[in-house]
Each structure stands twice: as C-alpha cells, then as structure tokens.
Design goal:
The complex is a heterodimer of chains A (286) and B (320). Chain A has helices at residues 2-20, 22-39, 41-44, 81-117, 119-133, 137-148, 152-162, 164-178, 182-189, 194-230, 242-251, 258-285, and strands spanning 63-65, 68-70. With 286 residues, chain A is mainly alpha-helical. Chain A has a two-stranded antiparallel ribbon with strand order 1-2. In chain A, helix 2 (22-39) crosses helix 4 and helix 4 runs antiparallel to helix 5 (119-133). Chain B folds into two domains: 16-88, no CATH class; 102-319, Orthogonal Bundle (MetI-like fold). Classes of the chains: A mainly alpha (286), B mainly alpha (320). At the A-B interface, helix 5, helix 6, helix 10, helix 11 and helix 12 of A face helix 1, helix 6, helix 7, helix 10 and helix 11 of B.
Chain lengths: 286, 320
C-alpha cells in the first residue's frame, strides 16, 4: 500500500515539476517523440529508405512520387529524405543508448572504487583520465575507428570504453564527500562489507547525478556518431544515418538545399530536446 | 576582499614552486601516456602491415616491409624505438607525400591555430557580454533570450551550422568564400561555426559564476560605497567570476582543436585537422600519429598554462 502511495507521489512530483518548467516539458516530449519515431520506423515511414528511383533524383520537397508525396524531397539516388531521416533516428538512438549504458557502468564502477578506496588505484585511474582527456576526443575516436573498421559494433564499443571519464570523475568526487558521512560510518561499525557499502549505500546516493550526466552524454554521443558518419568513418552507406545524410547533402549543397538542411534539423531538434530534458532533470533531481 | 592584488608574497613562493613542479611532472607523465596511446592505436589490430600495404602485396613484399618498419620485433622494442623517434621529432616518412610526417603537420599548424584562436575570440566576444547581462538581470526576458541562444548553440552540430552558413552566405547571398584559406574573408564562416558551440558553454558558466559572485557580501559593500554599476560589475564582480571561466576556456581549447578537425573538412581549411582526416583516408599512419600527437601536446601545454595562470589569479590556490 505504501509503495503505491510513494509511486503516486513520485509521479505527481514529476508531473508538477514538468508542468512548471515548460522547457523541460518540451524537452521530454521531444525525446519521447524521437524514441517513438525510431521504434515505429517501419510503420510510419512513408517510403522504403533504401529504395532508389533515379528518375526522381534531387526533387524538391513536396514533389509527388509514384507511391506518395516526398514531403522532404529526394536525395541524389531518388530515395525519400523523410524516410531516411526516420530510419536514421534508429541508428543514432541505438548507438548512443548502448554506448551510454556501457560507459556509465564502467565509469560509475571506477568512480565508486577509486573514490572509496583511494590510494594507488585512485592515482592510476585519474592519470588515465588525464591522458585520455588530453586528446582532442574526436580525433582519438576517428583514429581508432579507422584502424578497427567502421561498423555499428566497433563504434558502440569505442564510444562506450572512452566515455567512462565523465561519470568516474563526478561519482568519485561525490563519493569522496559521502564516505565521511555518519551513515557510512554507521554501516561500517555494524560490520558492513566494503562491497555492501559501495553498492547499497554509496551508489543510490550518486544515482541522481549519473542520470543527469547520462542524459547529456546521450546528446554528445548522437553528435559524435553523426560527426563520424559525416566524415565517412561511421555508419557506411546505404544504411541511413543522420551524419551520412549530411555528408551526401553537402555534395549537392549548391543545387539541392533540402538534402542537407532537414537531416541537420533533425539532429538539432533531437539534441535540443535532450539538452532541455537534461537541464530539467538536473533541477529536479539535484 | 577576495580579489587581492596579484603580488606573490614571500612565504608563498616556495609553495607555488612546489605546486608547479608537481604539475610539470604530471604533464610529463601525461605526454608519455599520449605517446603510448598514439603507438597503441596503430597496433590495435595486431600487425599493422595490412593497414599500410595494398591488398595485392606478395608474401616477400610483406616480409620485407615488416622488417623495414620493424614490425617483426617485439612490441616493447617497437615502442621504445617509436619513443626515441618522437623525442627527436621523427615520426617517419609520410607514406603518401614522401616527406617527414612531422614536417607536414607543423607546416599546417599555423592555419589551425589561426582558426582556433579566431573561433575562441568570437565565442568570447559574444558569450561574455551575454553571460554578464544574463547574470545581472536574472530571470528577465534578457536572461531567457541569452539562455535560449546558449541552448541553440549547444545543440547545433558544427557540421550542420557550417553547411547552413555556406548555404546562406555563399549560395544564396554570395557574400563569403566557402572554401580554402584566402585572407580574412575566408576565415569568418569557419570561425563562427566553430566558435558557436563553445560560445554556448561559456555563456552558461559566465552566467552562473557571475550570479554566485554578485550574491557575495563584498559586492554589496561596493554598491553601498556608491561605486557605479560599471565599476562594480566589471572591476569587482567579473574579475572574481573570471576564474572558472578561464578554466573552462582552457578546456574549450581542447574541444575547439577537436572541432577544428570537422570545420577544416567542411571549409577545406588547410590545417592539421584536415591533414589528419585525409591521412586517415589514405592510410597514411605516420602522419596520423604525428598529427594526433601534436594536437594532444598543444592541448596539454595549454592546460598547464591555464593552471599556472590560475595560481597567479587566485591567491587562495597558493595556500593549498
């Protein structure tokens, strides 16, 4: 009974907070919309994103095709831009969500351990963080992907493994202050094992910051994946990805403006939504 | 007063020296780590021969190549050889241009620095006034507009804003050249599109830092003394608020260097970033190593400078 009341209270709190923070509301709605679009892509996409029709190359938005209207125009191979954007959302979300999960698990664990135990292990990981942060990040990713090969699995793994630093640093600094608090001393006095203290006591208290970081990291990873694909080192054609669409559109910028404009707009609106949602989460949780 | 004159007093000198020495050692460790990572990247798939030779290479050619490049030696020996080369500035010959890899990088460095500095200048020129204004009038329409500008800047990827700028200013209005480096005209668009992203973050930090400083007691004292708004805001508040901003700017330079890679590709700006990307396409890994290493070193040195500046600006740091 009390569980139901707590969860009703929590939902009420979230609802009230969102209602008063219009930007957060818009952000959450946008993110939800993008997720729905990505999940239901086969259902809502007006055309097959891979179907070429060379008679309809580079047609402006609103032109009529053989099986419907191309609301956002066609690309250089006659494929519907709108459908490719819809399917591109899938790639962006799959990559960013998977990478964030990997990076957060790694980063939070490292942060918890280095913050709690300190000493040598702390120094090693913080030096590692410094070294990794010394690189212009994108160059590092590009170099690694170029050597390993550009496919979804590699990209997710590389993003995930290199993304741990943000989480680790923030979790570590929070743990450093938390470990001096009475409830930790009490847990130790009661004979709690280190493992127990870390995961049952410290972890729930850093969870809020981690959620906020994760949200903003999702935005960053979507941007990075698009950057990689834009440079031709990410998702390879013909699979539609937002960055790849921009790269294709760039070649036709002087003649067919819609080709590069709409995918970029999709990226921007998604990132805007995620950032707004992240800001709201930060105000709400912390 | 939290902001004191920047004289390093007698007793502090020893402490400052110790701190700087620590930072210097740390920097060296990081630099060695960078060489390690740059080395490892090439060897991630084991034997990099297949990356550097065409597919049709015969077995004899492969063996000869491996011996020439030293790939048949144990890994640590290869690393030591590489490290020795790095210290002498020798990253090997570019596989495509036939010139020393580092020379090619250094040749293009001024272009990248020019772009990065211009972008930072634009970012600061917009972000700081906007941030200060937003902080001085919080929660008013000025503030909201400022925050929306920041939000948009943060959400617009460089490759898109760059393309849109080209679309508007070159294709539609024919005002500015879209490609290459040919004087101030060609610098404007790349610098704006690169700086826009950083501007957003700087605005936010300026605003929050100013808000927290403006709430402090000594500001109230300054106002009570009857100082003009200008003196209060600029001379007293901003100087104290500037410290986190400077830290951020140091970090942003790293982001800018990375973003320069994309900007240079879009605008065909002849800098190190573009060289690195082309080298990656061409499998010219000596150049890739040289470029990545150079950019990383620059970034590390900038961070070191920022830390030294920090010590000079914030007397509290000197006391530990």
């Amino acid at each position: 009974m009390s569980d139901t009341i707590t969860s009703i209270n929590a939902s009420k709190k979230i609802f009230h907070s969102l209602w008063s923070n219009k930007r957060g509301l818009i952000g959450c709605v946008t993110v939800l919309a993008v997720m729905v679009i990505a999940i239901t892509a086969p259902l809502i996409s007006p055309f097959d994103p891979l179907k070429q029709d060379l008679s309809l190359r580079l047609k402006p938005p609103g032109c009529k095709g053989s099986s419907g209207t191309h609301w956002l125009g066609t690309d250089h191979l006659g494929r519907d831009v709108a459908s490719r954007i819809i399917y591109g959302a899938r790639i962006s979300l799959i990559i960013s969500l998977s990478a964030v999960i990997i990076a957060s698990i790694l980063g939070i664990t490292i942060g918890l351990i280095t913050g709690y135990f300190r000493g040598k292990i702390d120094t090693i990981f913080m030096r590692l963080a410094d070294i990794q942060l010394a690189f212009p990040f994108i160059l590092l990713i590009i170099a690694v992907v170029a050597v390993l090969g550009a496919n979804i699995r590699n990209i997710i793994v590389v993003f995930g493994i290199t993304g741990w630093v943000v989480y680790a640093r923030i979790v570590r600094s929070e743990v450093l202050s938390l470990r001096e608090r009475e409830f930790i001393t009490a847990a130790k006095a009661l004979g709690g094992s280190n493992f127990r203290i870390i995961f049952l006591h410290l972890f729930p208290n850093v969870g809020a910051s981690c959620i906020v970081i994760a949200t903003l990291e999702i935005a960053r990873m979507i941007l990075m994946e698009a950057a990689l694909s834009f440079l031709g080192l990410g998702i390879q054609p013909p699979t539609p990805s937002w960055g790849g669409l921009l790269a294709d559109g760039r070649d036709y910028l002087f003649t067919s403006w819609w080709f590069a404009t709409f995918p970029g707009m999709a990226i921007m609106l998604t990132i805007l939504g995620v950032n707004m949602m992240g800001d709201w989460l930060r105000d709400f949780l912390i | 007063m939290p902001y004191s004159r920047s004289i390093i007093r007698e007793g502090e000198v020893k402490y400052v020296k110790k701190y700087l020495l620590q930072r210097l050692l740390q920097t060296i460790v990081v630099l060695v780590g960078i060489t390690l990572i740059v080395f490892i990247i090439l060897h991630l798939t084991g034997d990099p021969t297949h990356l550097l030779l065409p597919l049709e290479a015969t077995k004899e050619e492969i063996t000869l190549f491996r011996h020439q490049m030293g790939f048949d030696k144990p890994l640590y020996a290869q690393y030591l050889h590489f490290l020795k080369g790095v210290i002498h500035g020798d990253f090997g010959q570019s596989l495509r241009h036939g010139q020393p890899a580092l020379y090619l990088v250094v040749e293009r460095l001024p272009a990248t620095i020019e772009l990065t500095v211009a972008a930072l200048a634009i970012a600061l020129a917009i972000a700081i006034p906007v941030g200060i204004l937003s902080a001085v009038k919080p929660n008013t329409s000025t503030d909201h507009i400022g925050m929306i500008v920041a939000l948009m800047g943060q959400s617009m990827p460089i490759y898109w804003s760059g393309l849109m700028l080209i679309l508007l200013l070159t294709v539609k209005l024919n005002l500015l050249p879209a490609f290459g480096r040919s004087g101030l005209h060609s610098l404007i668009m790349p610098a704006i599109s690169l700086g826009f992203f950083s501007m957003a973050r700087i605005v936010r930090v300026t605003r929050s830092s100013m808000i927290s400083v403006l709430g402090k007691d000594f500001i109230r004292t300054a106002k009570a003394k009857g100082l003009t708004n200008y003196r209060v805001i600029v001379l007293h508040a901003f100087k104290n608020a500037a410290i986190p901003i400077i830290t951020l700017v140091g970090m942003e330079l790293g982001t800018l260097l990375g973003g320069a890679v994309i900007t240079e590709t879009i605008f065909a700006w002849p800098g190190v970033g573009r060289l690195a990307i082309q080298a990656i396409y061409n499998r010219d890994f000596p150049v890739v190593q040289a470029a990545v290493f150079t950019l990383a070193v620059i970034f590390v040195l900038i961070n070191l400078l920022v830390d030294i500046l920090y010590t000079y600006l914030d007397p509290r740091v000197r006391y530990g």
